[in-house]
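Per reviewer request, we include the raw input and output of the structure prediction for the construct analysed in the revised manuscript.
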Amino acid sequence: MPAFENPSIFELRYTDLGTIWDAARVAGVKPGTIRVWECRGKIERVQLDRRGPLYHLPTVERAAKVKPGRPKAA
């Protein structure tokens, strides 16, 4: 289960989906970082048809706001 889940397939809007390049642009990172996030379970791709993997851009944007690293001790 990814840390940042996509909405249900019935709630997705096609205008909110984008390629790995679109996801990288929204997150402000390189496409390789999007692949790493996917491998580590931070985000997941959306597979709707044979055109290739798509990403829910609002979910990627939320994931990008979380800074990496360990939380500071209280």
